Amino acid sequence: MSLDVVCAGAPFLDITFAGFGRMPALGEERMAASVEYTPGGLANVALGLTRLGLDAAIWAPVGEDISGRLLAGMLADEGIDWLGPPASATAVSAVMPLDGERGFLTVCPEFEIDREALAELAPRAVVIDLPAVDRVPDGVDGYAVTGDVDARRLAGALPEALSQARALIVNESEARYLTGCSDAESAARALAEHGPDAVVTLGAEGAVCAGEHGLVRAQAPAVKAADTNGAGDLFTAAWVWADLAGAPPAERLALAVTYAALSVRVPTTRDGALTLEAFRREAPPLDAIIPPNGARR
């Protein structure tokens, strides 16, 4: 098997409750208007990459519980292979979007990533959680991501293997945890000193990227946010896609910021992740820099 990108880490089953006026207090029950079951976590990155025309797969233990069976079916419907040994449990998040933000309640079984199994898939690139960045096979571009929990744990003690990664993509709060810096630009520069391009996303304010090219910034288009969950994952997907297509850093950043921003206009990442054709239609100011043939080999 030969793939464009392997997302190495837990895919989540996201259960999104939408249409409620405020979060329930302890001991209180409130009613939501709807509930959606969708892929989440690194599955969102694989979804964005697939919608943009790349061959993407997930490597992680495959849950054989009811959540895993449901998630596997959803991934298969999107043409995404979920590869790995069997497991008894699946990562699940309850997602509660409200007023353009969201709350989570999550469970994620721990496991180790098999470096040899990744190498056998012969991917062009691997998107992987920061603590496991040393599992990226030799000669393969690695894109590291993280979450708040790991960012707090790794504060001031970034993995040495990060120096071999092509990029580190984090949000502003994660960047601050990792570096202790008070602003995104300083944090991006500090992270880039470890070797990779360092990208810090800023939500509605866009993103910054520091690296050998210096510091670049991109503003996000103004949109009305319905659900911001997964926007960072789709930013990562678009950054990797644009990088594999050979776009320079400023163009990568503009494409990724816009792709992520356009996704938040509707509930769920599944509905917000645009295909390449839809991206062209929805982002005409960027048409000149959207790779004409995507990023396929």
Characterization of this structure:
With 297 residues, the protein is an alpha/beta fold. The protein has a single domain (5-9, 41-88, 113-286), classed as Ribokinase (UDP-N-acetylmuramoyl-L-alanine:D-glutamate ligase), CATH 3.40.1190.20. Helices cover 31% and strands 26% of the residues. The chain contains ten helices and 15 strands. A nine-stranded mixed beta sheet has the order 6-4-1-10-11-12-13-14-15. Strands 3-2-8-9 form a four-stranded mixed beta sheet. The longest helix is centred in the last third of the chain and has 15 residues, at 249-263. The chain is globular and about 50 Å long. The two termini are 14 Å apart. The mean pLDDT is 92.
What is the fold's blueprint, element by element?
Elements: E1 5-8, E2 11-18, E3 34-41, H1 42-51, E4 56-59, E5 62-63, H2 66-77, E6 81-83, E7 86-87, E8 91-98, E9 101-107, H3 115-120, E10 125-129, E11 141-145, H4 148-153, E12 167-171, H5 172-179, H6 184-192, E13 197-201, E14 207-211, E15 214-218, H7 231-244, H8 249-263, H9 269-272, H10 276-282
Helix pairs in contact: 1-7, 5-6, 7-8
